[in-house]
Amino acid sequence: xxxxxxxxxxxxxxxxxxxxxxxxxxxxxxxxxxxxxxxxxxxxxxxxxxxxxxxxxxxxxxxxxxxxxxxxxxxxxxxxxxxxxxxxxxxxxxxxxxxxxxxxxxxxxxxxxxxxxxxxxxxxxxxxxxxxxxxxxxxxxxxxxxxxxxxxxxxxxxxxxxxxxxxxxxxxxxxxxxxxxxxxxxxxxxxxxxxxxxxxxxxxxxxxxx
Length: 210
Hints:
By secondary structure, this protein is an alpha+beta fold. The protein is 37% helix and 30% strand.
């Protein structure tokens, strides 16, 4: 074999070797795609987890603010029940139940009526208030439960079944308020075990029994 023919054969041999080393087979391509899909799946899963965690934290803050705001307003209004310095309007508690209360007080020389009600909508309850008889408006949403436990001057619980006919309204001197706020029913699966916030407070009706 001549030198020129030998060199040509040798060059072709190394060209084929390089082609075999640098080429990508179908199996290698499938493996690379599988690895890429796996990494992308991990990234998406982590991104969703972080989003859910942020939403859970936001829900917790919203629930806490809701229950605190409701308790603050109810405490302020409840303490005014029965305020009637001139004894001209017979102000006081006019009706009461486990999840509602009606009362009145005098403000700027006029009788002011208040009503609080809890409405259950399949777990997405609302706390509503009626001020002055003008109709109920929404005070707080996603209030799962409102429980009102009425106490006498000794701090003992008063059984409230039909307080008007039983004459137990005049015995009430305080109320233990328990409010439980939750998240929207459509979002509960995002934060299992972290769906509610409960606040309990005892408020004395300082103008009753004077």
